[in-house]
């Protein structure tokens, strides 16, 4: 004869009040099942079916760690000089002729174009034009001119000692910067060696000469900024981003932020 203990849906045994706890019955597959010894009152244990889901939760691995990005998939740093130079290693000429780097030299520098940028590779002469400062005046620069083609938000000439800016060649049949989408305040990446400085288009120079930037641009790149004896004879790359504009033009922080974003798009798509 078998006696079975009935269990409710919640797992509690149906016991008659005041009736001793029944013996636990081990039910085998065949008629040889035997009556087991009386068991003490049940105690919660990890093997208890009612606690099994809790036990499984506590044994589960921490999934948040699995979904964390690996270091190799993290965001890369700002675009560097080598990446920018690799993008402009070849030139598709867009100018109708070439530019000189100085008076009396041969015209050897083309303006090159590609989607998202125009560029040239030249020297760097120091432009100290604009506001009179300790570093830029008629005493420090024999060719000093107290104005710039583009002005600050309050109508003043730019400050060459403080603001990194680039000089573009005057509009001519060789190349027209405005027709190419370049305007005052446009963003420029200036590269020398392993350094990149983000500047703005701040002044317009002679129609047949290219390769000039402000005192502040040269200083930030480690180039001697003295307008008489400084500058670099070669090895400077100027990458201009058509359609860009920093406003106000004197906000260098905004130029750096915009330049980094444009360089990222230009190099990494």
From TrEMBL:
GO terms for molecular function: hydrolase activity. Coiled coil: none annotated. Its main location: secreted. Residues 1-23 form the signal peptide. It holds the Pfam family Glyco_hydro_75. It is found in: Secreted. InterPro entries: Chitosanase_fungal. Keywords: Carbohydrate metabolism, Glycosidase, Hydrolase, Polysaccharide degradation, Secreted, Signal. It comes from the Bacteria. This is Glycoside hydrolase family 75 protein.
């Amino acid at each position: 004869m078998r006696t079975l203990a009935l269990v409710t849906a919640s797992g509690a045994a149906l016991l008659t009040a005041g009736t001793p706890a029944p013996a636990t019955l081990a039910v085998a597959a065949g008629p040889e099942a035997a009556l087991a010894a009386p068991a003490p009152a049940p105690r919660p244990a990890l093997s208890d079916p009612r606690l099994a889901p809790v036990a499984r939760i506590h044994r589960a691995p921490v999934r948040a760690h699995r979904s964390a990005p690996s270091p190799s998939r993290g965001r890369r740093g700002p675009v560097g000089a080598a990446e920018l130079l690799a993008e402009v290693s070849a030139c598709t000429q867009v100018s109708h002729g070439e530019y000189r780097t100085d008076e009396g030299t041969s015209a050897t520098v083309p303006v090159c174009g590609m989607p998202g940028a125009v560029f040239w590779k030249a020297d760097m002469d120091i432009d100290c034009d604009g506001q009179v400062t300790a570093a830029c005046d008629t005493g420090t620069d024999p060719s000093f001119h107290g104005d710039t083609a583009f002005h600050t938000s309050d109508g003043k000439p730019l400050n060459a000692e403080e603001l990194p800016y680039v000089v573009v060649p005057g509009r001519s049949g060789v190349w027209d910067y405005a027709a190419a989408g370049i305007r005052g305040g446009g963003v420029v990446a200036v590269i020398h060696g392993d350094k990149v400085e983000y500047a703005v288009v701040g002044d317009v120079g002679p129609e047949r000469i290219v390769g000039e930037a402000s005192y502040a641009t040269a200083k930030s790149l480690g180039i001697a900024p003295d307008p008489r004896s400084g500058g670099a004879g070669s090895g400077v790359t100027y990458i201009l981003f058509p359609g860009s504009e920093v406003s106000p033009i004197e906000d260098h922080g905004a130029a750096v932020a915009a330049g980094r974003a444009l360089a990222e798009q230009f190099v990494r798509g």
